[in-house]
Amino acid sequence: MGAGKTLKFAICEVLQFVGLCVPLFIVMQRFAVIVSKVKDLAQPPGDSRTAYWLIVAASVAYVTSTALFIWVPLKYMVFQKKKFLIGRKKWRPVALVYVILSTLPCFAFLIASSEVQIHNNMKHDMFMEVPVSLILFSLICMDVVERIRHLRLTGRGKTSNDRDREAEIPSTILTHMEPVTPLNPLVPGPAVPGAAVPTSSIAAYPMSPYTYTGPLRFLCATDARADVIVDSFMFWMDTVEMVRSAGHPLVYYSGWVFPIYIFSYLSCLRVVVMPHSPLLSSLGVALQDLPFFFVRAGLVAFFGFVTPVLYMMKNLLICLAFIYFNFMTKLRIFNTERMVF
Q1: Please, are residues 18 and 145 in contact by the beta-carbon 8 Å criterion?
Q2: CA proximity to 182, closest of 197, 195, 199
Q3: Which residues share a beta bridge with 91?
Q4: How far apart are CA 202 and CA 94, in angstroms?
Q5: Cβ neighbours around 240 below 10 Å, total
Q6: How many secondary structure helices (H) and strands (E) does the chain include?
Q7: Cβ(157)–Cβ(151) below 8 Å
Q8: Are the C-beta atoms of residues 307 and 297 closer than 8 Å to each other?
Q9: Are 296 and 312 in contact (CB under 8 A)?
Q10: Where are the beta strands (DSSP E) in the chain?
């Protein structure tokens, strides 16, 4: 392993470990503050300092134990390319462990913080921005690191057009020919041995897409490595907006934090599947769009427009489109034949 690869490996590992630890420390420290406030308001007052430092010590012990006994051994096995972890290359074990070890306890403590304040008639902290944003930003960074660590970070990378051309655009070289009945009947005549029969199945595909060569061609710059970051943020926008709706005062101090954080966590499990996997479509509907639509409909019905209607319509349209194009179009009434020109 060269010096450049070693440096990139170290940076990726440090970023992922920081993303694993920091959200836990922040969320549990805020929870410890809430518990200490409850102790101070109790009758008779309890020892708030002891409760605070016990929770902080528990967070340190949790992070240390999980890092030594789960995170580091998993990273070692992935680095050694154990077949039972990365053999099939259809899932991401590091992402699964991250969501279980970091995201799950963070969401659990967010719910616990809300319940502690509700049961003690206290409104001290709603965990509105910094902790929630930090949790999701760390999850996004972990996703970006997992997707970009196998790419070179120096030199010219593949553009989006290059990636699309390799994946989707077929070659102009004919590799497969099938006899097709011509649309227009040929004029009867003697057959010429070895003559080619014109058919409508032979089509030429361009090998290179249109490229702009004018004075503003620098505006068309694109790189697949930068697109990874954009795709990762777009992948999480619906989950981010759902979690942010729990920060509304009317929602946070109610029982609605349970379905919000539970279904938001379930949507995070989609990151375990490899990007561009065929499973992402069905998982997106089952774990995100369908439950998110009902949760948002309930929030709007009980609290008003505490969540954007745009996202609710997005969830509904994606569910309807998935059902229609994958199932209803297979029915006889929708499976009509069309004339080919």
Answers
A1: no
A2: 199
A3: 273
A4: 46
A5: 18
A6: 14, 0
A7: yes
A8: no
A9: yes
A10: none
Q: Is the pLDDT of residue 263 over 50?
A: yes
Query: How high is the pLDDT of residue 229?
Result: 87
In angstroms, rounded to a whole number, what is the distance separating the alpha carbons of residues 125 and 123? 6
pLDDT digits (tens, 9 = 90+) for 135-171: 999 999 999 998 888 877 776 666 545 554 444 334 3
> What average pLDDT does the segment 27-42 reach?
86
CB 264 within 8 A of CB 288: no
Q: Which two structure tokens, joined as six digits, stand for 131? A: 């902790």
* pLDDT tier, 40 (very low <50, low <70, confident <90, very high otherwise): confident
- Count CA within 13 A, CB hemisphere, residue 255: 2
d(CA 148, CA 330): 38
Cβ distance 34 to 116 under 8 Å?
A: yes
In the block, residue with structure tokens 């719910």: 111
- Under 8 Å CB-to-CB from 23, ≥6 apart: which residues? 102, 103, 106, 131, 134, 135, 138
* CA angle, 292 then 295 then 298, to 5°: 150
- What lies within 8 Å, CB to CB, of 178 at 6+ separation is 201
In eight-state DSSP terms, residue 306 is: S
Please tell me whether residue 273 adopts helix, strand or coil conformation. strand
For the chain, give every domain's residue range. 3-153+223-330
The separation between the first and the last C-alpha atoms of the chain, rounded to the nearest angstrom, is 57
Phi, psi angle pair for 273, to nearest 5°: -75, 145
Q: Does the reported pTM lie above 0.85?
A: no
Could you report the per-residue pLDDT of 268-319, keeping only the tens digit for each?
999 998 888 888 889 999 999 999 999 999 999 999 888 889 999 999 999 9
Q: Which amino acid is at 307?
A: T
Residue 45: Cβ within 10 Å count: 9
